[in-house]
Amino acid sequence: MEKVLVSVLDNGSRLQAPAVAKYVEWVRRSHPAESPAQIVERMEKMFLLAVTGSGSAVGATAAIPGVGTVASIAAVGAESAFFLEAAALLTLAVASVHGISAADHQQRRALVLSVALGESGMEIVQKATGVTAKNWATAITSRIPGPTMKGMNSTLVRKFITKYAARRSALILGKLVPAGIGAAIGGAGNRAIGKGVVKNSREAFGPAPARWPDELRAIEA
């Protein structure tokens, strides 16, 4: 399970990292008058809408005649991967708005995992780095020795597996309930966990900057 989880997280971080800046720019172009804080809030709403919809859709498969349990479980597995990748995209996008750049996949993995874990992730980062920071996301992208980063990520992964598995196991069983009940459970459950990701992200990065970096450069010029 640990290998599968790391693979999903790395896949989300590696594939989405080059597209994060374009994604943020696309949202900005669609809403040019909005501040960084408003753009972050808009991305949070898009994330919650996406994961809620995916949870409801997978839960609805159990109500379709002829769809077996194996097929339903396979759909749940794919949806779980989608949830993790969506959470990775949100985390990296919010980091981009804050001007935080994760240089390599180890930093991206630590950033995504620590935000997903929230307070327990913050404690692991602080213990590993020896840095006590209100916005602990900045500590991850500072100069951390390779062995320290890898050890910290291993601890974050083990903690995340325990916490994530406990939350998702009951939700997975709920999604397999037929007669449309699974759809309601899937949507509501995904939204609840998604709100936790949003809350942790806000605590990790703090308030959004008042201005965009390009606006600041224009003012300075």
Automatic annotation (TrEMBL):
Transmembrane stretches, start-end: 47-75, 81-100
Keywords: Membrane, Transmembrane, Transmembrane helix
Superkingdom to which the source organism belongs: Bacteria
Protein name from the UniProt record: Possible membrane protein
Lineage of source species: Bacteria, Bacillati, Actinomycetota, Actinomycetes, Mycobacteriales
